[in-house]
Sequence to fold (285 residues):
Amino acid sequence: MKIFRTNRDIRDHLKALNINPSGFVPTMGALHNGHISLVEKAMTECPVVTVSIFVNPTQFNDKEDLKNYPRTETDDLNLLSGVLRNNDAVFIPTAEEIYPEEDKRIFDFGNLASVMEGRYRPGHFNGVAQVVSRLFDIIRPDIACFGQKDLQQLIIIRELVRQTGNKVRIIACPIVRENDGLAMSSRNRLLDPMLRKNAGIIYTTISEASNMAGKAGINEIKAFVQDRINSTDGFILDYFEIVDGISLQPVEHDNNFSHDNQYFCCIAVKAGSIRLIDNIEISLV
Ligand code: AMP
Fold:
C-alpha cells in the first residue's frame, strides 16, 4: 500500500494508475474490524482502493469529544498493511489540506437531519457533508463504502450524492459486532472496563425491542428500552426511536407499519461520558 498526506500526491497517484472503478472508504481512524469489512468490500468491487484517515473537526459539536477522539495512526497503518494491495492507498491529510480556508457551506437535508443524531448533535451532519464532499472531490471515487452502523449518516450521504449529482455509487455495509453484540466503534476503547463489560446491553435491548415491534405499542417498547438502559449502572439513554428506513421519521402510531417498508430501531446511549449509537432492522412477521 502507499501512504499520501497531500491532495496533490493522492491525486497524482490515482491519475498515474488510471484504473477504475476506484473505491473509497472514508474513516476517522482508530480502525477496527468494522472498518476493515468496508475496506474488504471495496476491494472486492474495485482494483484500486483509497482509505482516508481524517478526524474531521467540523463534524464535532463537542470540543472535548474532538480532543479525546482516539488517534492511533501507527496501529491503523499496521492493520491496513495486512489488508491492502500494492496500489491501494491510505490518505492521511491535515486539516489545512482538507480546509485551506474555512468551509462555510450549509447543506439542507431537511427532516433527515433534524431527528436523532441531528437533534442531539447540532451541526454534525453539516460537518459530515462538508468533509465527505471535499474527500469525494479529491479522490473522485466510482464507489464508496459506508457502514450501516451510522444509518442516519449513510442516508444523508445518499442524499448528498443525489443533491450534488455525483455519480459515485454508495455501498452500505452491515454492522460488525463484538462477541457480546456491542457494535464495533472507535469509541469503545475509551470505555472504562466496567462499562465495557456491561455494554452488550445496548444490542440485547434493541434486539428485544425489534422483536416487540408490531406486537407491543410504540410507547410500551420505548418504556421498555428506557428502563433497561437506565437501570444499568453508568448507562443513560439519549434516545430510542423506531424509524422508517427511507425518511428516518419516527413511527408514532402503533399500527403504522407497512410490510412494504423497512424499519429500524435506533438508539444512542451515554456510557459514562462516552456516547454510543447502534441500530437494528426490524423484521415484521
Ligand atoms: P468512523 O471512523 O467512525 O467515521 O467510521 C468510518 C466508516 O466505518 C463509517 O462508514 C462507519 O459507518 C463505518 N463503521 C464504523 N463502525 C462500524 C461497524 N461496527 N460495522 C460496520 N461499519 C462500521
About this structure: Residues 27-28, 34-35, 37-38, 146-147, 149-150, 173, 175-176, 183-186 surround adenosine monophosphate (CB under 6 Å). The radius of gyration is 19 Å. The chain has a mean pLDDT of 97.
